[in-house]
Amino acid sequence: MNRNTRNFRNPVAHYAQSDSGHLTRGLRNKNPFNIRRSNSKWLGKIPFDKSNDRSFEQFTLLQYGVRAGLYLLTKYVRDYGLGDVTQIVHRWAPAEDGNNEIAYVTAILSDVITSEVKRTKDYLYGVARAMCYVESRYVLTKDVFDRAFACLPAPMCAYWMNLPTEGQTREEVDGL
Fold first, then answer.
1. SS3 73
2. pTM score
3. How far is the C-alpha of 126 from the C-alpha of 85, rounded, in Å?
């Protein structure tokens, strides 16, 4: 089977192949954000004893790997106060680990246009889409994003939809 036929039958592979034509590590692991292994109890996480990757998390479904990435991005913005793409990238993929932060930020800004974080689901989708592509050469579809987003805890969804979370009034969310 030639490469074009294989890509046609597997549209995910079309976007997530390495230069050698094989699926990228992030897609093999269903972890397009390339989240490092940790003791986090992620939804859909493959346990360490059943995992064949000793460096990165593995998930049972792609949407669970995307959900974990969305969860971390929300923590970075909401809980750690990272207010722009440069700060997110510096924490996610620091230069000290051999990453090109400038190229990473540029790739994200080509999808979201503004560096300042906007509390909208569309902004989160743009950042996540660019990060998945940089990390795994995977083009995150709106369908997979929506399924992953729906699996987030309700306060995280409310945060990106600019809705009041527990204990907040509408005025506090709007900054009034």
1. helix
2. 0.83
3. 11
For the chain, where are the E strands, in sequence order?
A: none
Q: Which residues contact 148 (CB under 8 A, 6 or more apart)?
A: 63, 64, 66, 67, 69, 70
Rounded Cα distance between 95 and 99, Å, is 5
- Provide the 10 A C-beta neighbour count for residue 163: 14
- CA pair distance 83, 104, nearest whole angstrom: 16
Q: C-alpha distances in angstroms, 41 versus 44, 59, 64, 92?
A: 9, 11, 12, 19
Q: Which amino acid is at 42?
A: W
Task: Give the whole-angstrom CA distance, residue 113 versus residue 165.
Answer: 27
φ, ψ of residue 162 to 5 degrees: the values are 60, 35
Task: Extract the residue ranges of the chain whose pLDDT is less than 70.
Answer: 1-21, 164-176
